[in-house]
């Protein structure tokens, strides 16, 4: 199957300058990108004049089924929100709830131009099945909270996910191990997970230094910063690591991360909304540490719109430094694409538009008052566009949304399932 996209304003993210041209997709990969591709023998042509083409956005940190908990308990401190609201609600979720919650998140992501995401949650078989059906790309992790002895059940589920789903769904699914955080996993279990990750070469997805309360707690328990603590456990030396949040890192902490495989997933809207702080993303990138962008679950963030997240990331750095030159448009867009791809460990395959890479890309309709005139395409995409401007979403060469119509998800059925289930889950909490 050959698909030809014609006449788009293309931002490859490999080069800074956009150009008008064509993209030829052959099967799951980009076959060619040129100002004009002639006689490609395409089975299908998308006329994209007036649209921008860019790599699909990659949401580097998510808890997809938490979309069922959107708006249920806002304006609380993180620890209260987690322990009093989220954990009890999660304990009530059935595998079917998880499936529909994950699908709700995927519908929203496809609609707002996200093509891949990193997910940490429970009942991962159901999430994997939803990924297989919706056609998205995902890095899946069974979150491991070890606050009680569960006889090894969580760990067994984590390993089962990896064995069963790694490389599946035409290679769209990858997996990681998910020790939840420095404060929910005791040191002996951290050591066990790190040993396993090193032995089997499995990446690790965790939360790091999200709040000042976490920093105080780890100081009290281990007399270290959260980053120092994980560093001394050998984490950054022994595994590829995805570090969600990474807000409270001092200069020494950043030094511990230098040379790490993986990187940080910046979640600016969630950090703003929970009042957590501003992650030192400019300092991390200056030290050569990869930084991607994520939304976190819709329970703590509000939406899964990565365009809002890109904007928030840029604005926070400018505000933090009192300098509008910090995190310019192109760098913010790169963070949400190639940066996230590095953090997920899939940068060889996605994150830029290049011949030979997987065809994960989006078309954004620029023929709108808030996206005209086109003086500077990166500026428009980083500072003016919203998810609803995405016209077409393509993953692995397959069109998942065209003309804002979802092609792999029955939205009527989805919304009916969601409202019924969401009400039951939160009743009385
Ligand atoms: N509680 C589960 C395992 C954890 S899955 C991942 C967890 O991350 C939680 N989570 C979501 N957002 C955040 C955040 O911003 N910081 C810390 N944890 C979060 C989420 O509520 C979920 O419980 C069990 O009993 O096995
Ligand atoms: Zn999270």
Q: How many separate helices?
A: 15
Number of domains: 2
Major sheet size, sense and barrel closure: 9 strands, mixed
Structural class per helix/strand content? alpha/beta
The proportion of residues in beta strands is 15-25%
* Molecules bound to protein: the ligand N[C@@H](CCSC[C@H]1O[C@@H](n2cnc3c(=O)[nH]cnc32)[C@H](O)[C@@H]1O)C(=O)O, zinc ion
**What is the end-to-end distance?**
50 Å
What best-fitting shape do the alpha-carbon axes yield?
Answer: globular
Describe the protein in words.
This protein has two domains: 2-54 and 358-406, Urease, subunit C, domain 1; 57-344, Alpha-Beta Barrel (TIM Barrel), CATH 3.20.20. The protein contains 15 helices and 17 strands. Helix 2 (95-111) packs parallel to helix 3, helix 2 (95-111) packs across helix 15 (411-426) and helix 12 packs across helix 13 (329-344). It has helices spanning 78-91, 95-111, 124-134, 153-165, 187-200, 212-222, 226-232, 235-238, 251-257, 268-273, 281-286, 306-321, 329-344, 377-383, 411-426, and strands at 2-10, 19-26, 29-34, 44-47, 51-55, 57-62, 114-121, 137-144, 173-179, 204-208, 241-245, 262-266, 290-293, 361-365, 390-395, 398-402, 405-406. It starts with a strand and ends with a helix. Helices cover 38% and strands 23% of the residues. By secondary structure, the protein is an alpha/beta fold. Strands 1, 2, 3, 4, 5, 14, 15, 16 and 17 form a nine-stranded mixed beta sheet that branches. A four-stranded parallel beta sheet has the order 6-7-8-9. It has a four-stranded parallel beta sheet with strand order 10-11-12-13. It binds the ligand N[C@@H](CCSC[C@H]1O[C@@H](n2cnc3c(=O)[nH]cnc32)[C@H](O)[C@@H]1O)C(=O)O and zinc ion. Residues 63, 82, 86-87, 90, 120-122, 143, 145, 154, 180, 207, 210, 270, 296-297, 300 line the site of the ligand N[C@@H](CCSC[C@H]1O[C@@H](n2cnc3c(=O)[nH]cnc32)[C@H](O)[C@@H]1O)C(=O)O.
């Amino acid at each position: 199957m050959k698909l030809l996209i014609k006449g788009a304003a293309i931002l490859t993210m490999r080069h800074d300058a956009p150009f008008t041209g064509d993209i030829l997709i052959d099967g799951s990969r980009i076959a060619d990108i040129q100002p004009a591709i002639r006689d490609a023998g395409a089975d299908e042509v998308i006329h994209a004049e007036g649209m921008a083409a860019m790599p699909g956005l990659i949401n580097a940190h998510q808890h997809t089924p938490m979309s069922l908990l959107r708006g249920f308990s806002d304006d609380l401190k993180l620890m209260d929100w987690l322990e009093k609201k989220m954990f009890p609600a999660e304990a009530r979720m059935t595998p079917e709830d998880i499936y529909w919650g994950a699908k709700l998140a995927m519908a929203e992501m496809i609609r707002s131009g996200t093509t891949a995401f990193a997910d940490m949650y429970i009942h991962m078989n159901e999430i994997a099945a939803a990924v297989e059906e919706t056609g998205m790309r995902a890095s899946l992790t069974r979150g491991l909270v070890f606050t009680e002895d569960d006889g090894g059940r969580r760990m067994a589920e984590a390993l089962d996910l990896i064995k069963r789903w790694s490389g599946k769904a035409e290679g769209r699914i990858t997996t990681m191990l998910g020790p939840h955080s420095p404060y929910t996993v005791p040191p002996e279990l951290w050591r066990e997970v790190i040993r396993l990750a090193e032995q089997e070469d499995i990446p690790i997805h965790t939360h790091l230094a999200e709040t000042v309360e976490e920093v105080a707690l780890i100081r009290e328990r281990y007399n270290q910063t959260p980053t120092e603590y994980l560093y001394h456990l050998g984490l950054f030396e022994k595994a590829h690591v995805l570090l969600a949040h990474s807000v409270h890192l001092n200069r020494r902490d950043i030094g511990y991360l230098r040379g790490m495989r993986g990187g940080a997933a910046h979640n600016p809207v969630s950090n703003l909304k929970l009042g957590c702080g501003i992650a030192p993303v400019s300092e991390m990138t200056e030290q050569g540490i990869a930084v991607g962008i994520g939304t976190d679950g819709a329970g703590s963030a509000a939406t899964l719109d990565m365009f809002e997240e890109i904007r928030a990331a840029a604005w926070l750095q400018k505000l933090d430094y009192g300098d509008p030159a910090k995190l310019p448009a192109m760098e913010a867009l790169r963070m949400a694409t190639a940066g996230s791809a590095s953090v997920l460990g899939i940068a060889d395959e996605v994150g830029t538009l290049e011949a030979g890479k997987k065809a994960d890309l989006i078309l954004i309709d620029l023929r709108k008052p808030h996206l005209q005139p086109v003086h500077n395409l990166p500026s428009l995409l980083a500072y003016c566009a919203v998810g609803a401007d995405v016209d077409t979403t393509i993953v692995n060469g397959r069109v998942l949304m065209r003309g804002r119509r979802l092609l792999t998800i029955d939205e009527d059925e989805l919304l009916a399932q969601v409202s019924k289930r969401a009400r039951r889950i939160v009743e009385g909490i």
